[in-house]
From TrEMBL:
Pfam families registered for this protein in UniProt: Glyco_hydro_4 (PF02056), Glyco_hydro_4C (PF11975)
Keyword check for tRNA-binding: no
UniProt protein name: 6-phospho-beta-glucosidase
Cited Gene3D superfamilies: Lactate dehydrogenase/glycoside hydrolase, family 4, C-terminal, NAD(P)-binding Rossmann-like Domain
InterPro entries listed in its UniProt record: GlycHydrolase_4_CS, Glyco_hydro_4, Glyco_hydro_4_C, Lactate_DH/Glyco_Ohase_4_C, NAD(P)-bd_dom_sf
An example molecular function term from Gene Ontology annotations: metal ion binding
Lineage of the species this protein comes from: Bacteria, Bacillati, Actinomycetota, Actinomycetes, Kitasatosporales
Length: 445
């Protein structure tokens, strides 16, 4: 079975390959094709993968190419993890927004809109190529903003594109761990959009254990989200929000923390990864060791500004392991071998949330089998959550419309309608600022 990884020179690709190395069952991935526009990055990542596979008999064969059509032909699965504009683009997204006093995070608010505007046209081109060159392939999208990009691709690939994210998985794992439950045996009632969802229940053997957590202040304040949001706010909500909702519930504090930071997250990662790829130019560099060291630093500093503004302290060691690669492997196995499982995924609504239309991509538990991912029925969201979901989905639709039409006016509308952008004039200046620094937004006329 052939897996094509788009963004194959990306820093986190070894996580995906490492997960593949643990799969020894029949029908597993035997060929991995890495595609990237940067041959130097491809070479560096290929070296890391070679060291990972050195002691694993029968490891999947790895090849690399800068030819997209060649990479896609004959693929059974396509894993999309591209970053249009690179980390330098992310740093621009952050700086332009913060200069206007609004959030520049890569998937939330102004930064997420800017990232989406330059990513959607590229993702749509990829979707069209997949439909032509590998019509039977399943596309697993990890490209951010994941829900928005998955919806853009679904207009050309239907339900054969599925978005994944590690945030809901990590959140459910943390809640189960605090409650003394096995995450593999827990049903997580999680509903929303990507980076905009809530855990409303965690059932073990048919019993919802979340009320027990919400009733115990010490227990509730003992894990990441309790520290980040505060016990009183979580009890008020009666649910545990995805960590990215901190940008909404504590927006002023988050913006202030980012403005006061020595450097933005994008700038930090750009410098860090530049050092990694530069070091990998040395033929004698220990590829896997260098990558491991860089990854540990990256994970430990994740959302550090939010944790600092909330007084949440350092991340727990158990939360430094990521997890999206395990979701990707579980998804591929379920489809390829009809190994039925339940995963929280980004899929088309299909009537699951009544406040959204059928084609809106949402993030909910799905039953996965050989025919793909099927969203399960969920209870309606409370009004405050429904309002936020509908508002952000409306913004996503304006981003898709702007990307399709090239309308600068529609792009301004997308920014202006976002809950975290508080002025039409700010929206206009944001579009001016972003088009000035991003060549990829030159299509906005």
């Amino acid at each position: 079975m052939k897996l094509t990884i788009l963004g194959g020179g990306g820093f986190r690709v070894p996580l995906v390959y490492g997960a593949l190395l643990t799969d020894r069952a029949e029908g597993r991935v035997t060929r991995v094709v890495l595609h990237d526009l940067d041959a130097r990055r491809l070479s560096a990542v290929t070296r890391v993968l070679a060291e990972q596979a050195a002691t694993v008999p029968g490891a999947p064969e790895v090849t690399a190419t800068t030819d997209l059509d060649e990479a896609l032909r004959g693929a059974d699965f396509v894993f999309s993890a591209i970053r249009v504009g690179g980390l330098e683009g992310r740093a621009h997204d952050e700086r332009v927004a913060l200069a206007e006093g609004v959030l520049g995070q890569e998937t939330v608010g102004a930064g997420g809109i800017a990232y989406g505007l330059r990513t959607v046209p590229v993702a749509v081109d990829i979707a069209r190529r997949v439909a032509r060159l590998a019509p039977d392939a399943w596309v697993i999208n990890f490209t951010n903003p994941a829900g928005l990009v998955t919806e853009a691709m679904s207009r050309h690939l239907g339900d054969r594109v599925i978005g994944i994210c590690d945030s809901p998985v990590g959140l459910g794992r943390r809640i189960a761990r605090v409650l003394g439950a096995d995450p593999r045996e827990a049903w997580i009632d999680y509903v929303g959009l990507n980076h905009l969802g809530w855990v409303r229940g965690l059932r073990v053997a048919g019993r919802d254990e979340l009320p027990r957590l919400l009733a115990d202040p010490d227990l509730l304040g003992s894990f990441e989200e309790g520290k980040l949001f505060g016990v009183d706010w979580l009890r008020s909500l009666g649910a545990i929000p995805n960590e990215y909702l901190h940008y909404y519930y504590f927006n002023r504090e988050a913006v202030r923390a980012y403005q006061q930071a020595e450097k933005t997250r994008g700038a930090f990662l750009a410098e860090q990864q530049a050092r990694f790829y530069e070091e990998m130019r040395r033929p004698d560099a220990a590829a896997l060791t260098t990558w491991d060291r860089t990854r540990a630093e990256r994970e430990a500093t994740y959302m550090s500004e939010n944790r600092e503004s909330a007084g949440a302290g350092e991340r727990d060691a158990d939360d430094l392991s990521g997890g999206y690669e395990k979701v990707a492997l579980a998804l591929m196995r379920a489809i390829a071998r009809d190994e039925r499982t339940t995963l929280i995924l980004n899929v088309r609504n299909q009537g699951t949330l009544s406040v959204l239309d059928t084609d809106a991509v949402i993030e909910v538990p799905c039953l996965v089998d050989a025919n793909g991912a099927h969203p399960v029925a969920v209870a309606p969201l409370p009004d405050h959550a429904s309002g936020l979901v509908c508002s952000v989905k409306a913004v996503e639709r304006e981003v898709l419309a702007a990307a399709e039409s090239g309308s600068r006016t529609t792009a301004v509308k997308a920014f202006a309608l976002h809950p975290l952008v508080d002025s039409v004039n700010v929206a206009r200046r944001l579009v001016e600022g972003y088009t000035a620094v991003h060549p990829g937004l030159a299509y906005l006329g």
